[in-house]
Amino acid sequence: MLTLENVSKHYGHRQAALTDISFSVGKGELMFLTGASGAGKSTLLRLLYLEEKPSSGAITLGPFNLSTITKEQIPILRRHVGVIFQDFRLIPERTAAENVALALEVVGKGRREIRRKTDDALRLVGIWHKRNNYPHQLSGGEAQRVAVARAMVNDPLVILADEPTGNLDEQNSRDLLALLRDLNLSGATIIVATHQVGLAREFGRRILHLLSGTLQGESR
Ligand SMILES: Nc1ncnc2c1ncn2[C@@H]1O[C@H](COP(=O)(O)OP(=O)(O)OP(=O)(O)O)[C@@H](O)[C@H]1O
Ligand SMILES: [Mg+2]
Questions:
Q1: CA-to-CA dists, residue 117 to 41, 51, 105, 150, angstroms
Q2: Is the Cβ–Cβ distance between 165 and 196 less than 8 Å?
Q3: Is the pLDDT of residue 85 over 90?
Q4: Which of 7, 23, 163, 192 could form a disulfide bond with 57, CB atoms 3.0-4.6 angstroms apart?
C-alpha cells in the first residue's frame, strides 16, 4: 500500500533530515511514528503528501510512484491523501460543515453528494451539532475533529496526522487518537506522527522510532 525504499532527504547542504529509511505500511494499518524534536517525523510525512521530494530513494503509494510523478500530477495525487496538522488549519471564514465540504468541492463532487458525505463525516467524528460554527467558535478538540472529518471525507488512500494532539489537553488527545483508531477499525490506513510515545503505546499498534533521521526500529 505504502512503501519507502532507502529514502533520504537533505535540506540544502545541511545534515540529512532523513537517512536511508525503508518500511511498508499495509492497507488498513494504523501506525505511529515517534522520535524527539528534529528526528524527522514531519519531514517524512511531508514526503508522503508531496510537499517535499526525497533526495534519493523510492516511495510508492497505492498505484502511484511518488519519486517520479510530474508537477502536474501532484494535485491529483494529493486528493488521495488526507492530512491533519497540529494547528488544525481550518479556513476561518468557513463553518465546520463548509470546511469539510470544500474537500469535496475541489474534487468536483455534485451538490447532493457533498451534502450527504459532509453530514456523514461530521456525524462520524461527533461534531454534527456544531456544523454551523466557525472555527473560532470551536474548542481545540472540536476543531481537530472537523479536521479529521475533512481528511477522511474523500476516502483517501492514507490519512497522515502530524502531531494531531499537539495543541490538545490529555483527555482530548486520548479521545482524538481513539477517534483515529475507530476510523482505522472501519478500514482507514493512518499514520500518526507524535513525540508522545506513552500515548501511542496505549493503542497497542505498530510504532516506528526515528532518531536523528534514521529508523531505530519498531515496537508496539
Ligand atoms: N524546511 C527546512 N529547511 C531546512 N531544514 C529543515 C526544514 N525542515 C526541517 N528541517 C530540519 O530537518 C530536521 C528534521 O525536522 P522535522 O521537522 O522533520 O522534525 P520533527 O521530528 O518533525 O520534529 P518536531 O517534533 O519538533 O516537530 C531538523 O534538523 C530540522 O531542523
Ligand atoms: Mg514535526
A1: 31, 27, 11, 10
A2: yes
A3: yes
A4: 7
Three-class DSSP category at 154: coil
Can you read off the three cell numbers belonging to residue 208? 516506528
Q: Which residue lies with its CA nearest to atom 26 of ligand 1?
A: 37
* Number of independent structural domains in the chain: 2
> What's the 79 CA to ligand 2 centre distance in angstroms?
22
- Do 204 and 109 belong to one domain? no
Which residue type does 133 have?
N
pLDDT digits (tens, 9 = 90+) for 24-70: 999 999 999 999 999 999 999 999 999 999 999 999 999 999 988 88
Q: Is 37 in the pocket of ligand 1 (CB under 6 A)?
A: yes
33 CB near ligand 1 (under 6 Å)? no
The residue whose CA is least distant from atom 28 of ligand 1 is 38
Q: Which long-range contacts (CB under 8 A, 24 or more apart) does 166-169 make?
A: 166/86, 166/87, 166/194, 167/86, 167/87, 167/88, 167/140, 168/140, 168/141, 168/144, 169/140, 169/141
Same domain, 162 and 73: yes
Domain closes at, from 121, 152, 183: 152
10 Å Cβ neighbour count for 76? 11
C-beta of 164 in contact with ligand 1 (< 6 A): no
